[in-house]
Queue: 2 jobs
Job 1
Amino acid sequence: MAAGDAADMATRKRCTECRQRFTSTARGPIVQRVCGAACRASRDRKLARARRRREIVEFRAEERVRQAEHRGQPPVCHAPSSARNQPELLDEVVDFVDRSLRLSRAIMMRDITVICRSKRASVG
Ligand SMILES: [Zn+2]
């Protein structure tokens, strides 16, 4: 084998994506693994997929942040409380306080118990 043949073998490679033979560039004869831009994009997607599979917890955390940013909202760690119940509950509390100010302590305690039971039943 001549010295020229060895140099040719160092720069002639097989693409890891399309399996076609290619000549690597002068800058990348050792690390270049793909023949062109299309195969580079394909290889990048494959490596990213492998990383997501390998680091699934990190990927999901990053994905939550990315999606929240895309929607223009700050990321949340849990679902917000039901908005439907909040005005209803506020009205109930205002009514309850108004009546309590007028009525006796015993009736106030009875009302508190009724509200707590109804809220517990609707939640659980
Ligand atoms: Zn290729």
Job 2
Amino acid sequence: MTSTQTETDECTWLCDYCATCAVGPDCSRLDVIVEPDEIEWRGGAVVTARYRCGCGHEWTCRWSSELLHPQRGI
Ligand SMILES: [Zn+2]
């Protein structure tokens, strides 16, 4: 485990899991976290994040743009 991990990393909250690596026999979900390679927001309610894992698997995930506002209240 690396020592420095900043929770304020702007992409950390958009991390997703590589579905290909996650089914590997020696992998736990935490081993296959991938940060978005590209984030696309066209001003609407949905943010599209594009992921590219080291294994070659690529996928996209759509997030509500509400997630972009950490201080949106409870
Ligand atoms: Zn992978």
